[in-house]
Each structure stands twice: as C-alpha cells, then as structure tokens.
Write a structure and sequence with these properties.
This is Alpha-L-arabinofuranosidase. The protein has 686 residues and is of the alpha/beta class.
Length: 686
C-alpha cells in the first residue's frame, strides 16, 4: 500500500483547494516511418469481462470518501468495485468505533458512509478485515453488521492487506501484533477468520493475501515455514478461501513500468499453477483479484493512464475478476515534469487540491481528474460486462493492443502507444471478423488532455496513433450475425502427456442450422493454428512439443457455414516423457527474490556409458538467465541454454549421474523449464 508522506501533507491534500497550474502543451511528436501491424483474432477467445472488473481503492484518511461529487465521478468512470478501508490502514482499523490507532481517520469515512458511496456509484464493496491488530470475532461481527443488520449484501472480504510486509522477510510496514509473524500463522488464522465470518453469512467470499510472482518476497522461504509465502498460505488455507488477492507496483521508470505489463500472462499462469498445486481439491473455484496497482513515475500524467488501461486489460483478459487502482485521493508527492506535463507524485486518480509544504506548487482544484481517471474512463468505453476478450497483438513493443467482442456482434479494439516522442501509423488486420465499411466510433486520450475525445472517423484498418495515447475503436460487423451457433462451453484437458492431450467441451447450441462440426484452434500470440476438427465434443491432439504451454479454443461451425464465437480459453502444459534413456532433475533453492541457486542432475538410464554429452533447454520467458555456473560449461543465447561437460565429467556410466550447478536470475515471473534434451533425446524429469 502507498500512503501519504505525512499527516500534515495529507490534511493539506484533502482540505486545501488551490488554483491549477497553467496547462503545458505536450512536445511536438514526429511520426514513425513504418506502420505497425496490429492483428486482432476473434477466433482466439480469452476471458469474459465480469461485473466486478473496474475497481478503485477508498481510504479512511480521505475526507472526500463519501461526498456526492467524488461518488459521481467514480460512477461516470464506470467503477464497479470499491475497496475499503484503505491498504495498510486495514490492519489497524477497528470498524465498530471507527478508529485506527497510530493513523489518521478523517471525519465522514465510517463504514456506513462508505456503503452509501458504493450504492451511489452502483458498485460492489470489497472489504479488508483487520488481520494485523484485529480478531476473527471482530471480522465476524463486521459481516453480521453489514449483511444481517444492514442488509448491504457485501460479498467480498479479504483477510488483511500486505501481511508478508510484517517483518517476516526483513522489511516491516504492515501492522501485525501476533507474536508469530510467519506465513504459517497467517494461513492458520485465515482459516479461523473464514470459519468465523462464514458462520455468520455462508454466502460471502473470503480472500487471502498472496505475493506477485517475480516480485519480492515471492520465492523466498523464511523461518520455519515449509516454503515461500504463497505455497505456505495455499497449502493451509486453500480449502477455506474463495479468492486470492495480489498487489503490483512494477516500479522503475515510466518506460520500464509500461514494458513490465508483458509479465502479466506469466504471473497469472504461475498463480494458477500455485493454486492447482497447493490449494487442494476444486482449486479452479478460487478467483484472483489485483487490488492495488500504480506506477512510480508519472502517477498523475499520461504514463499512469497508459499503464492503467494496459494492465487492467491484461489482467482481465487473463481471467482476473477485478483490478483496482491505488488510490482515489492520496496526497502530494515529489513534483516533476513528465512528457511536458506537471506530475505531482500523487497516487490518487483525483486531485486532493494539495500544495507543497512551502506553497510553491499547488495541484488543480479538489477532484480535478488526473490522467489515470481518464484511463479508467477509457476502460468503461472499451470493455463492458459480458464482453469477451479476444487475442490482439502487434509487431512493435511500444504499441500494444487489446480487443473484445460484444454479444451484438460489435468489436472494440484498444490501442496503446507507449512512445512519448513518436506518433505511430498502424494497419489493423482482422481474423474471424469482417468490419463494416462505415467509419468506426473512435475515442482518443492524448498526452495532456483533460478528457477523452470521441467521434466517428477514419477506417477500421488504418490510422495514426498520437504519441503517448490511448485509442479505442468500436466496429460494426460487415454482415448479419444472427443465426450463428452459440460458443462451445469451457474446454477441459485430460490424458495430457509430453506429446498429446484430449480436449473435451460442452456442446454449442445450434442457431439457424444444425451444427456440422467443431474446430480446435491453438493460439500463437494473435494468430490461430487449427489443430483439428471433429463432429463430436472431444478431440485428441497429437504431435505436441514436450514442456510447452498451449492455449486452445473451440469453435462450432453449422451446415450453413456460420461460425460461432470462440469458446472460453483452455491453457494446459505438456510435460516430459514418462520414460526415456535419460532423466534430468532440475532444482531451484535459496531463492532471494530475483535469483536462486539452481542445479541439474543428469541420469543415464541407458545400458551403455555416454562419452560426452550436451544438455539443452529453453527458458519459458525472456527475462530468465544463467548468470554463472560450475561443474560444466554454461552458455546461453537468447532463451536457449546449452550445458556441456568439463574434462573430468565427460563420461556418464550406465545408470550413473552427473551434477552441475548455476546461479539463476530473473526479472519477472520465474516460470521454470519442464523439458530437457540430452544429446538430442528428450529426457524424463524426476
């Protein structure tokens, strides 16, 4: 959680209104020479937008939390979920007497006032139960008051905030009065909280705090815990919880934060792997929320707007059920210039009307929207409840794309130009969708703008994106969409081996004609590869690559040639052979948050010795590497690793082993390899 610098700064930020600085025109941008190719593929379906998608944080130090002006602004931006009582303050907050010992509580911020704001906005609440200085009984009483006494129907309750920040890993900012501050103790108490709260209202959903894969303290084991935070919490509390809650501040410069949005598919994949491995039976029922998001550079200016739209889209298309900005109001920070605009270093999306302590610089008047507010408003225009995300991609890292298809046949495309200096012309190709010849509805947020400009203009296939901008196109289909079959249901995978998998799915409902067949498509980025077709609701895919991740969709085609929208996505991973002439045991130990001590043990399962050997594997991401190694010669080119023997371990006897070690490093989610090749043979793994 990010909090105001001081109470004095906070009070100034929330109680003072000051005149705005004169606007500064953005620097003139030049146009990049070569058009960026954007591909939108409606055959590659992703997650569906839930009714909790767009979220924000409210904090009890914000005296404007309950005002009509604030609530109306949030409603206008499309806010669907509101979190309370405010990050780390949740672990010192006592709802009954509305106090937070050691912190500042503004007047007019009690729970009933918050709920009145939630109702005015038309949103749902997410409430943080006090873990750090509270008790399960206190949390249960809050549930009783909210849902039994007042009838608020508050569904989502998280146990604590950033409880791994209680000193257990050496850094302490989160209040925790428990003598035992381990992940094990947190998990045990989550069970007690869940039991006590659900005894009052069994219909609520209870969440536990996890760490973001690839970010401190992910991967670190402390004290006597059986493993890192996520593993420990899920192993104990998994059967009792309904969702997990994660925060992400990617840090770095504006360019670095915007680039790190690429981490999200692997981060959510790792979270789901951890749920499946540690959370017990029926782990698929456990949802994922990201309830604090923000940047370190350009918090009030265009980098934050671009990041918000890009990260909300990236999370939602990967099945996260809600994404929340930190914060609505927060307070003044360091004043800088970012891409020609004044940035106040304020984590809020609405101005608090603050001035610096010496009064030399003041924010715009209270509740003036900052750039991330406009980014959230763009999300309201782009992704509506019930829309299905579909795969979109580009051939330029500084331009990203997202897309959703709507039940009425429309397609919306969000284009993000992260280049602060250059306009980028783009050409847009569509797969599985033919846009009408009419001009699309175009919404644009440019650097320094005080709002989104919307018009009908241009074509569906080409345009120029202004530097540092968000652009949404809403397109009508060229032909009628009536009569097509419904999308097939959620596919599942069974019998997954190193080379094959059987995909099954619930049947589609016919439209104007009987269903003739189903097509199984694999996603390759924004391109689909048809793996096969069948007249049944099951298909076995062969010739898969060991140790690879696959995302597939199923489409139904009827006898008139009409094709359904894509099914929900299915992601699965192939493993290694059950038996081979070699076995590789890969280990990762002593993780310190961005690196670890790795090892490989090679076992010769054959009947003859190996005289000379070469072990290879490919890292799943571009931010993983071998920093150094021993007992072998280590080489890495791109993501490919090659390990060869030293003079004293060239031979591996029949049934014998050779071991080598390395220092592994990573700058994002650390997805470990699962397939290894020895002298051209894919090995089993142990």
């Amino acid at each position: 959680m990010r909090t105001p610098k001081t109470r004095a700064t906070l009070l100034a930020g929330l109680l003072l209104a000051a005149s705005a600085l004169a606007g500064v025109n953005p620097p003139t941008a030049s146009a990049a020479a070569d058009p960026v190719t954007v591909t939108v593929n409606t055959r590659a379906g992703l997650a569906t937008v839930p009714d909790t998608a767009l979220g924000v944080n409210h904090a009890i130090w914000d005296s404007n939390l309950g005002t009509a002006d604030t609530s109306d602004l949030l409603r206008d931006a499309g806010v669907q979920m509101m979190r309370y009582p405010g990050g780390s303050y949740a672990d010192i907050y006592h709802w009954k007497d509305h106090t937070a010992p050691g912190g500042y509580v503004a007047p007019g911020t009690d729970f009933d006032t918050f709920m009145a704001a939630v109702r005015r906005v038309g949103a749902q609440p997410m409430i943080i139960a006090n873990y750090g200085t509270g008790t399960p009984a206190e949390a249960a009483d809050w549930v009783r008051y909210a849902n039994v006494t007042k009838g608020y129907d508050a569904r989502y309750w998280t146990v604590g905030n950033e409880n791994y920040g209680n000193g257990h890993y050496g850094s302490a900012w989160e209040a925790d009065d428990h003598p035992d501050k381990s992940a094990t103790q947190y998990a045990r108490l989550v069970v007690e909280y869940a039991d006590a709260m659900k005894a009052v209202d069994p219909s609520i959903k209870v969440g536990a705090v996890l760490t973001m894969p690839g970010n401190w303290p992910d991967g670190i084991t402390a004290g006597s815990d059986p493993g890192p935070w996520n593993q420990t919490v899920l192993s104990i509390a998994g059967p009792k919880i309904d969702f997990v809650d994660v925060h992400w501040y990617p840090g770095g410069t504006a360019a670095e934060s915007l680039a790190r949005v690429d981490h999200l598919p692997d981060a959510t994949y790792l979270l789901r792997q951890q749920l499946a491995r540690y959370a017990g039976a029926d782990a698929d029922r456990i949802g994922i929320s990201f309830t604090e998001l923000n940047v370190d550079a350009g918090r009030n200016t265009q980098p934050a707007a671009l990041f918000l739209a890009d990260v909300y889209s990236g999370l939602l298309e990967n099945g996260v059920f809600t994404a929340h900005w930190w914060n609505v109001h927060n307070g003044m920070g360091a004043v800088t210039q970012v891409a020609g605009q004044t940035d106040y270093g304020d984590f809020g999306m609405l101005s608090s009307g603050a001035c610096t302590e010496d009064g030399s610089v003041c924010q715009p008047p209270l509740n003036t929207p900052f750039a991330p507010y406009h980014g959230l408003s763009m999300m309201k225009l782009f992704a509506k409840t019930g829309d299905q995300f579909v795969r979109a991609g580009t051939d330029e890292p500084l331009v990203t794309a997202h897309a959703v298809r709507r039940s009425n046949g429309d397609l919306a495309v969000l284009l993000v130009n992260k280049d602060p200096d250059n306009d980028h012309p783009v050409t847009i190709d569509y797969a599985g969708f033919a846009p009408s010849a009419g001009a699309p509805t175009v919404s644009t947020l440019i650097n320094g703008a005080t709002g989104i400009a919307t018009s009908q203009s241009g074509s569906a296939t080409s345009r120029t994106l202004p530097a540092y901008s968000l652009t949404t196109l809403v397109l009508r289909p060229a032909g009628a969409t009536a009569g097509r079959p419904t999308a097939p249901g959620q596919p599942t995978a069974s019998g997954v081996t190193d080379r094959a998998a059987t995909i099954s799915w619930p049947a589609a409902t016919p439209g104007g004609s009987p269903i003739a067949k189903y097509e199984v498509h694999r996603q390759h980025g924004a391109v689909s590869e048809q793996l096969g077709e069948t007249t049944t609701t099951s298909f076995t895919v062969d010739n898969l690559v060991p140790g690879s991740r696959y995302t597939v969709n199923v489409l139904a085609r009827d006898t008139a040639g009409r094709v359904s929208w894509a099914s929900p996505p299915l992601t699965f991973a192939t493993g290694s052979p059950a038996a081979s002439t070699c076995t590789v045991r890969f280990t990762s130990n002593n993780d310190w948050g961005n690196g670890y001590i790795g090892g490989v043990e090679i076992i010769n399962n054959g009947t003859s010795p190996l005289n000379g050997w070469t072990l290879t594997w490919t890292w799943p991401t571009g931010w993983q590497q071998v920093s150094s190694g021993w007992s072998a010669t280590w080489e890495q080119v791109g993501t490919a690793v090659r390990v060869t023997p030293t003079a004293d371990n060239r031979q591996i006897a029949a049934g014998g082993t050779v071991s080598a070690g390395f220092v592994g490093a990573y700058g994002g989610p650390n997805v470990l390899p699962t397939a290894f090749t020895l002298n051209g043979t894919v090995c089993a793994t142990g």
